[in-house]
Amino acid sequence: MYAIVQTSGRQVKVTPGAVALVDGTAGEPGAELTLEQVLLVEKDGGEVVAGAPFVANAKVLAVVEGEARGPKIRVFKKKRRKGSRNTKGHRAVYTRLRIKDIVL
């Protein structure tokens, strides 16, 4: 059984018992979270339920495990023949979610 959930403007495939990384901070560690924007659910029998745009009465229950940071992205800008060089860095913050259950 798995579900595809929309969160933070991205789509994430989740299965019960797995850990999912979600953009941004979703809550304190140990807090329970309900994701209600479920786009698609595949049941154990192979039946697929797709929403238009979301599946009615479907929820994904998760627990916040903590935060993680992604790899450092280097942004380098240069203007040729001007002596202008600029380097900036960025690291995205992710929230680790432990998926408890998919309710349909």
Provide structural commentary.
The chain is mainly β and 104 residues long. It is built from no helices and ten strands. Strand 8 and strand 9 (84-90) form a beta hairpin.
Radius of gyration equals 19 Å
Estimated share of beta-strand residues: over 45%
Structural class: mainly beta
Instruction: Name the helix and strand elements from N-terminus to C-terminus, one letter apiece.
Output: EEEEEEEEEE
Spatial separation of the terminal alpha carbons = 11 Å
| Major sheet summary line | 4 strands, antiparallel
**Poorly predicted ranges:** none
Beta-strand segment tally: 10
Number of domains: 1
> Considering DSSP H and I runs of 4 or more, what fraction of the residues is helical?
under 10%
Contiguous helical run count: 0
Spatial strand arrangement across the major sheet: 2-1-5-6
Determine the oligomeric state from the structure.
Answer: single chain
In round numbers, the mean pLDDT is 94
Secondary structure elements and pairings:
Layout: E1 2-7, E2 10-14, E3 19-23, E4 32-35, E5 38-42, E6 48-50, E7 59-69, E8 73-79, E9 84-90, E10 93-103
Antiparallel strand pairs: 1-2, 1-5, 3-10, 4-7, 5-6, 7-10, 8-9
Short description:
The protein is mostly beta strands. The chain has strands spanning 2-7, 10-14, 19-23, 32-35, 38-42, 48-50, 59-69, 73-79, 84-90, 93-103.
List keywords for this structure.
4-stranded antiparallel beta sheet, 0% helix, 10 strands, mainly beta, 104 residues, single chain
